[in-house]
Amino acid sequence: MKLASRASGAVRGVAVALTVVFAALTIVIGQSEEIAPIVIEEGAPAPQTFIATERVTVVDVDATESARDIEASGVPDVFVEDSQTTAAVLDSIQDFFENARAAAEPLVIEPPDPPGTVGPSTTTTTTPAASVLAIAGDSGE
């Protein structure tokens, strides 16, 4: 091999090595410098000017809860207990279960009388009114 080709390869190797070393130094040097945290206190002026890159929303939880409680106290109650309606509903439920129990009892159906038979007969004895009064001790006078 020629000396020129060996030298150009060595030069390339040294150039790559120097690039890696300088890149590593840049990264390491950038890491050592820490930015001090910014402390902002309510009511005090900011220590420096800030420019927001997007809209910032801050929620005051205590003030939100207080405002919510105040507004909720002004709203009328949605549910008001009505004792008459409660009693009517309970009576309706009780009737339902009574009907269900009655429906659960066995139904007895008597067979019809065969044709040509006469049903049971009853006899009633009637007495004249005068005899009833005589029994009671009143002669009708």
Describe the structure.
The protein has 141 residues and is an all-alpha fold. Helices cover 51% and strands 0% of the residues. The chain has four helices and no strands. The longest helix has 30 residues, at 3-32. The chain starts with a helix and ends in a 6-residue tail after the last helix.
Can you lay out the helices and strands and say which pair or pack?
Elements: H1 3-32, H2 61-73, H3 83-104, H4 129-135
The major beta sheet can be summarized as: none
Unreliable runs: none
The tally of strands reads: 0
If helices are DSSP runs of H or I spanning 4 or more residues, what is the number of helices?
Answer: 4
Shape: elongated
Helix share bin: 40-55%
Could you give a quick summary of the protein structure above?
It contains four helices and no strands. The protein has 141 residues and is mainly α.
Characteristics:
mainly alpha; 51% helix; elongated; 4 helices; 141 residues
